[in-house]
Design brief:
Helix content is about 50%, strand content about 0%. By secondary structure, it is an all-alpha fold. It has one domain. Helix 2 crosses helix 6 and helix 4 packs across helix 6. The longest helix has 17 residues.
Length: about 120
């Protein structure tokens, strides 16, 4: 009997592990997290990395509210502490996943916490 391929570890576990990594001080884990959130259980490759709002990604849609709250917290932390490394990609026809994650987080923050987040 044929079964759809299952990625290992599953997306939910990948998300949890990267949130744990972020919580332990690895700010760049959010860049990887935003990419892992494009996966579904049956994915054979990463999804569209250019979707600007995290709430539209399978990793958000399939997450429990507790995990969604952790994602919001990590997004805010990445906006404040993340480094887009513009000197390595700006003006050379490429992009940085770190900058993409920062753009996505900013859009995410505007949708979910409009007016409640201030840079300090």
């Amino acid at each position: 009997m044929y079964r759809d391929p299952q990625i290992e570890p599953p997306p939910e576990e990948r998300i949890r592990l990267l949130l744990d990594d972020f919580d332990h001080g690895n700010i760049e884990a959010f860049t990887r997290l935003s990419r892992e959130m494009t996966l579904t259980e049956n994915s054979i490759q990463y999804g569209n990395s250019f979707i600007p709002n995290l709430k539209n990604l399978p990793g958000w849609i399939n997450s429990q509210p507790e995990v969604q709250n952790r994602i919001i917290s990590a997004a805010k932390g990445f906006i404040v502490q993340g480094e887009p490394n513009t000197d390595t990609w700006l003006n050379n026809n490429s992009f940085s996943y770190s900058a993409l994650a920062c753009h996505r987080d900013t859009a995410f923050n505007q949708v979910f916490k409009k007016g409640s987040f201030t840079m300090q």
